[in-house]
């Protein structure tokens, strides 16, 4: 059976209130008393119940992170850096693998009102707009809501321009963009905007597969693109996960990457922390995005009246094996 604060008080020979003040480093606890309490805690192997404490004090040291899926490498890496940032602030992470289930996400939002979590960082593409208000300690990644909500994003428009520029620099002359898009407005569509804006200035031919998510029958859509553009030699994919899917289909058709078609993705996914991506990609600053989201959320928790903040972070092109060496 786990030890309680009453057990600590009994062993230390002090009152329950004194134990509480000592554990919370409140002023007025004598050094000799503090030593008694600490000795009792060590003897009993006492662990403070932060959840119960949060209910009593109307506060929590836990942050919820809502992700569409943990299987996407970018989301997994983002979760890693959020947890790392929270740990240094003595906060814990609660992960919601939502699978775009609005009811599941709503339940986590309600946990803020119940003081079970102090705030939420959300990458969400489901119908929760009505539950997200400007006074909620909530930081969104990429997505906009009806009410003004703080959000963190990378410079998606510049990333789209960068992808077009690099494909051209690497010798591609007939380009296309491939993406699925959410029904809920978010920053990722600006990748397409930037790509098209850059190409509009060059006069180069371009095409696209731009379909509502989830994309059905991608091989068939690629067949159509290749029939329309038999000389296609450059592809920009909305993210690295899409690039991997498209590359696999192309290779099954006997089309070589990068010899026949060069490809650039978006995100900068890696298989390990110290390994660069094997893909040519527009890399997002994942660690900086996670830190910015945590910083903005902590400010909102401490000062609920603070105005919403928008943080846009720069991206960079990382050379991999899906473009030709220059």
TrEMBL record:
Transmembrane segments: none annotated. It holds the Pfam family Peripla_BP_1. CDD domains: HTH_LacI (cd01392), PBP1_Qymf-like (cd06291). The keyword Transcription regulation applies. This is Msm (Multiple sugar metabolism) operon regulatory protein. SUPFAM superfamilies: lambda repressor-like DNA-binding domains, Periplasmic binding protein-like I. One of its GO terms (molecular function) is DNA-binding transcription factor activity. Keywords: DNA-binding, Repressor, Transcription, Transcription regulation. Residues 3-57 form the HTH lacI-type domain.
């Amino acid at each position: 059976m786990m030890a309680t604060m009453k057990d600590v008080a009994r062993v230390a020979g002090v009152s329950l209130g004194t134990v509480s003040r000592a554990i919370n480093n409140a002023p007025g606890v004598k050094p000799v008393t503090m030593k008694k309490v600490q000795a009792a805690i060590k003897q009993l192997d006492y662990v403070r119940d932060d959840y119960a404490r949060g209910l009593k004090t109307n506060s929590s040291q836990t942050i919820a992170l809502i992700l569409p899926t943990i299987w996407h490498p970018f989301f997994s890496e983002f979760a890693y850096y959020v947890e790392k940032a929270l740990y240094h602030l003595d906060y814990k992470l609660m992960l919601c693998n939502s699978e775009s289930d609005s009811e599941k996400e709503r339940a986590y939002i309600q946990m803020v009102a119940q003081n079970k979590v102090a705030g939420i960082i959300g990458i969400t593409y489901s119908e929760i707009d009505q539950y997200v208000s400007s006074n909620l300690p909530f930081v969104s990644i990429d997505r906009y809501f009806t009410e003004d909500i703080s959000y963190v994003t990378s410079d998606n428009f510049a990333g789209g321009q960068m992808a077009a520029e690099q494909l051209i620099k690497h010798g591609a002359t007939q380009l296309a963009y491939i993406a699925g898009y959410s029904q809920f407005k978010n920053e990722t569509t600006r990748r397409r905007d930037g790509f098209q804006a850059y190409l509009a200035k060059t006069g180069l031919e371009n095409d696209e597969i731009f379909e509502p998510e989830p994309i059905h029958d991608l091989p068939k859509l690629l067949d159509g693109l290749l029939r329309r553009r038999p000389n296609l030699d450059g592809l920009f994919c909305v993210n690295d996960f899409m690039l991997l899917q498209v590359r696999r289909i192309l290779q099954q058709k006997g089309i070589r990457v990068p010899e026949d078609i060069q490809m650039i993705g978006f995100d900068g996914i890696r298989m390990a922390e110290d390994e660069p991506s094997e893909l040519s990609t527009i890399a997002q600053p994942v660690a900086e995005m996670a830190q910015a989201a945590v910083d903005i959320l902590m400010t909102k928790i401490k000062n609920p009246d603070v105005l919403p903040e928008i943080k846009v972070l720069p991206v960079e092109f990382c050379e991999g094996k899906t473009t030709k060496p220059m």
